[in-house]
## 1
Amino acid sequence: MSRVYNFSAGPAVLPEEVLQAAADEMMDYKGTGMSVMEMSHRSKPFEEIITEAEADLRDLMEIPDNYKVLFLQGGASQQFAAIPMNLMKNGVADYIITGQWAKKAAQEAEKYGKVNRIASSEDKVFSYIPDCSDLPIDDNADYVYICENNTIYGTKYKELPNTKGKILVADVSSCFLSEPVDVTKYGVIYGGVQKNIGPAGTVIVIIREDLIRDDVFPGTPTMLKYKTQADAKSLYNTPPAYGIYICGKVFKWLKKMGGLEAMKERNEKKAKLLYDFLDQSQLFKGTVVKEDRSLMNVPFVTGNEELDAKFVKEAKAAGLENLKGHRTVGGMRASIYNAMPYEGVEALVAFMKKFEEENL
Ligand code: PMP
């Protein structure tokens, strides 16, 4: 078996021991004689899987009892519509635009109500997080929306915006479970799991109970109504069962690793190694202002497109995969999610050093 160091932004690297455990259980899950993929979502073993997954996630994030945890389908992008459909009571929401994903979410929300773009970092190619201490929050805003970690640009909010009492909704797709969070500061936390938690096809929504309503936007599909999903405990229809099973295994892995505080420490150590190298390099340059750097996605460039392409190609040959930057920004990006081992970042930095010596 030969595994590469996979720096993909998502779907992304998963813990090897989770993959191995899933492989071991593939043909016969705990004596059922079938894999989790083949099993009824109404069966006892699956009921245990989803119940334990939720309990472990609640444990890890210290989710208060007045929040529901939903395991849904449709990816993070589907939530771009579900959020305004369910939450826009007054028909107004404020969006902070820190990258393509926030932009797309705002565009989608506009179909259902008035969207105010109250801050943006587009003037500098989303290389920073705008000052969110005193924003022009609309008195009628039903919520303030952020994308907490910007996968493409490599920025992360180090402090949550001052929403002046309005509900905060956050897309945490690319920083899910990477560090502790205070759930009580949010109305909704959601994310696709295919970066830090599991296989694509599952999205997790953590929502405060009082925001789950019956009087949603007229015509909201039954499946997109949080009430449908909350009342049915994510089993209104067939859920993404195998995805939930893998998420559950990753939650257990995270607990075993020491929980989110330990993950934060580990992630900071990995990111420091790479950022410290970038800060002294004569060839490579990070593209994000230091204060707003993400622990998860690290974009960098040489300043020369041909050299960037050469780097990506040679890195791949050296077993360092998926280092090409997002198609909209070019350059390179190393995604170093929870499951990326420290050794993977060490290998990347060693390779970058060598490349710099050869190409400067
Ligand atoms: N939000 C963020 C922060 C993302 O990084 C992505 C995917 N890269 C999305 C939303 C969209 O996710 P999905 O493909 O699951 O719809």
## 2
Amino acid sequence: MENKLILDGTRVAAEIKEQLKERVSSLTTQGTIPCLATVLVGEDPSSATYVKMKGNACEKLGILSKRIHLSAEITTEDLLNTIHELNQDENVHGILLQHPVPSHIDERAAFEAIDIEKDVDGVTSWGFGQTSFGFGSYPSCTPAAIMAIMDFYDISIEGKHAVVVGRSPILGKPVSMLLLNRNATVTTCHSYTQNLNEIVKQADIVVAAVGKPKFIQGDWIKQGAVVMDAGYNPGNIGDADYEECEKNAGAITPVPGGVGPVTIAMLLKHTVDAAEKKLENK
Ligand code: NAP
């Protein structure tokens, strides 16, 4: 990798979707239309936008989008009942519960209620365990997207020092596991990490998953390092300071147009995978 690479997530997503078209069409002719159920609780505008984008992306590809919108007033039990119904529904192949749900709801219990076969967003602890062990189910979509972009651009992972900033269950932790399974040496940082900048300076691969705009500074980036910015903050701003990080990076994802579009493509891919598995097991 000699020249600087701007890692074009829109292009990667387009290629993934192109490959999915044929699979969706083959499933459909066999009488199985892949279907993703999205569950939105409450009226949070960003969550509503994300769910709408995911549903629309499904429909563009011929995947059914079953959109469930529940009132912010529902109880944990109501939400669990909805998830149980979707688990039972033979025509639903994947379930996405948009996060965050209102704070009075036990979000973890709701995630755990999703059938492992339909956990296309990799949110259950069982799914996380399988991801960590390197087999089975679907990893969370953003970590899967980060890996897909690096693979698309042939970025070498084995033996590299990857520093992940963030340890959330849907992002920092699973991407750390995926990198570890690919033989990177992984350091996972969080809000208690001391001398963060010194640690990031040692990284060959930096994953920004911190939820703070422009948090990763340009002078923390080692010359030639790969910067994967999963951040998505209001105003389309990433968790890395793109203009400054780009100066030292050998490869970097922009925001927007980096990890975001590939995250949606991975959700579609996992839904199609789930529909194929269901058909095979019929
Ligand atoms: P999150 O649940 O809020 O987790 C943030 C993580 O960052 C936590 O582990 C936290 O540490 C760590 N952190 C916070 N302040 C820190 C500091 N000063 N130094 C080091 N670590 C610090 O966020 P998330 O859901 O993982 O999301 C992270 C980012 O990814 C956000 O910008 C979000 O919008 C974006 N995102 C994008 C997509 C996509 O499709 N592109 C999908 C999901 C999320 P503690 O654990 O110690 O609190």
